[in-house]
Amino acid sequence: MKRKFFLVLFFFSFIAASLLFFNNEHIAFAHRMVVDVESNHVHVRYDDGTNAPLAVVTGYNEENRLLFEGEVNKNGQYMFDENLDVNYVMADDGLGHRAAWRKTETNSSLSAVPVSIRALLGVSILFFIACFFLYRKSPSTTST
């Protein structure tokens, strides 16, 4: 009985997650903005891979002096002079997203995975652990 209940619960959870994440194009999901800096250009994008064409980029040196400030193009790119020693870059799209890049930081491979997928994976792991302990705790049948 418990097993059937959990299978039905898992099935409906999977269907609900599928409808929520993959089927409806009109739902707005929260996402973060990411700044990538390579040699003499800055690329500003959201974590789902779309460009941030409204972003304003500012660059600073180690003494926090402003080196450049400008708007990105429609591809989310901003080019600056390669002779500048940029230590810190801030991007703001005016819609509530703000992202920063510092020269000493390295990007992890986890940042390439969208937040919605990471959240779904985390909930799935917690659901699996809960099911494991509930199955383990099932009452034993003893005959007397």
Task: Summarize the structure in short.
With about 140 residues, this protein is an alpha+beta fold. About 30% of the residues lie in helices and about 25% in strands. It has helices at about 1-25, 115-135; strands spanning about 35-40, 40-45, 55-60, 65-70, 75-80, 90, 100.
Note the quaternary state here: single chain
The backbone outline, from C-alpha atoms, is elongated
User: Main beta sheet, described?
Assistant: 4 strands, antiparallel
N-to-C CA distance = 23 Å
Radius of gyration: 23 Å
Count of β-strands? 7
Order of helices and strands: HEEEEEEEH
If you average the pLDDT, what whole number results? 79
Instruction: Strand order, main sheet: write it out.
Output: 4-3-6-7
What do you see in this structure?
- With 144 residues, the protein is of the alpha+beta class.
- It folds into two domains: 49 residues; 76 residues, Immunoglobulin-like, CATH 2.60.40.
- It has two helices and seven strands; from the N terminus they run αβββββββα.
- The strands form two sheets. A four-stranded antiparallel sheet has the order 4-3-6-7, with no helix packed on it. A three-stranded antiparallel sheet has the order 1-2-5, with no helix packed on it.
- α1 packs antiparallel against α2.
- The longest helix is centred in the N-terminal third of the chain and has 22 residues.
